Model the fold of this input.
Amino acid sequence: MDTRKPFAFISYSRKDVAVATDIRQRLEKYVYSKELVLPENRPEDPRYVRPIFQDLADLHTRKENFWDELKEKVRDARYLIVICSSNSAQSETVKKGISYFLQTHDNDTSRVIPLFIDNIVPMTEVVDEIVKVRNCPIYITKRDKEGHVGRKYCFYHLLEYLLHVDFYKLYNRYEAYKRRKATRKIMIAMSFFALALITTIYGWISSRQLAEKESQRATTAEALTIFERKTFPYSLVVGYVNNFLRPTLDALKEKDGEMAHIIIYMPYSYEQLNIVEHTTELNGVVAGQPTFADFTKEEIAVKAHRGGVTLVRANFKNEICPVYIDQANTVVAFKYVVDYKFNSEENPLKVVNTKENRDRMVQEYTDEFIAHTLKNLDEYRAYIHFVRSKTELNQIISIIMDEK
Done:
């Protein structure tokens, strides 16, 4: 019997057992890096994120001492992972588990990790307070390609909290592992193929085999580049849309009576990924618009967060319609990936480190991010305006004015 204390305790509703089981299995199969994880942040297991205790909440048949046994695991666990859904919001066992965990851990809410299924829903008072100040993982249940990417993003977001390692370091380690594994398989296959041909007609096939090997490498590198360029921005879109943009648009629609427009200023060069400089640039571009009378900061109540977000409202001189200005700060993550691709010795693509190449990569990520966001918010497409330059901003303002 495993006598080690649980690294994490998973609390969930019985109706969400599939999600809880998937999370537990993913965590316990993950091999963590001792170079990235400090000794004080490691599980007791020297290799895997183990042990993870899976709560048996909402069972119909229980032993007499069920809660006593459960309390011991809750008390000994370093972290509490709460699978949040409309089901667990109704579960008394889940509520009791959260309360007892905090009672035995000095009310340290930093050790409580809410993980939502598909969308953020109201939970307990403790969980709702955490959501106001922390970007919580969201598990996507759709069984298509986008759902797979969303679950991967959720898993590494969860690992970030558990191991105290930056998300992008974990994600880049995973991508590097995939590339090494794919390259290893290709090399093994190519070796067998080359050996078979060499044994028959060594002289003729040696030169041909070299050319085919280089072609295969180029094709594989190109395919990896295209796949990553599309999926990495989408991984950011999932949290941005579900945690911020959709709840904010819903709140604006309810608040103003008529649908407000929101203009989102996007970086379109590597230098603009510096958030301070980009904010200064945005302020200068917007403030220079002759159609705006003034600007005010406005607190928008967002029901899904049980809190609010602050947006800058641009007031037209002729009071045409509500227009809010924002910038998608989440895409600052592009900088980490661009730096990794150009600076990492493990990068197999060997991209030339020039300003033009860095800018082009940011532009590709930005375009994919915009396309995925608009696709996920098709019902609001006419009111969301992504701009990448002063020229585009002028065009959008003209369109809004013409509609009125």
The longest strand covers residues 292-302. The chain is about 55% helix and 15% strand. Residues 235-403 form one domain.
